[in-house]
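Note to self: keep these together.
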Amino acid sequence: MPAKPPPVSAPHEHENSAAAIRRLAEQGYEATTAGDLADAVGMSRSTFFRRFGSKDDVIFADHDHALAQLGAFLDSTELAPADALAEGTADVLRLLVRDPEAARLRFELMRETPALRDRELVITHRYERVFARYIRRVQQPETPDWVASALAASLVAVHNATLRDWLRDRVSDAPRAVVRDLRRLLALYDRWLSAEGAHQRVLVAVYDAAASPDAVLSAVASQIEAEAR
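Structure:
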């Protein structure tokens, strides 16, 4: 198994973003200028604009890094599809919660600022596109067209639900929790993600309603044995 690609974001870039988020939380989104943020991260205004672009870009910088990291991981991994999707999603969550204070401040800023909620929807669609591109590449032949889009949206939904639970102190280990729930989700799509799942067969049993449970189980077991021969 090849090593995962190194994180895309450098530590000092995250520190700059976190410092800017703290300044925004202190002064308020509307009241904070780009100059204020440049001062907070120790840059000139022109350097700040070259590095981040805008106030919104600072807030979502970790998401940009997470998207780049996710895309690089899915492009290079040799893990089985379900394992790759679970691990890639957990890596995104690890990056977003690595600084708990900044993560919580970001959440509050987005909750209180309509323009940031709109930008969050755009970010959500970008994650979905990255997942869907990978799923279409690895899915089994004759997989329905809707599978990639539906699974991609579900992966993002489970990730976001786990992140909200972590922010509200409902879970302490967010990456572990998201992998647990993603395993349950991905099991529903196994027939389209793995050759083994695609060849699973379903046995339908018809039995006398008056039969005892032992008789029903014995009949089912006999049929399974006959199918296996």
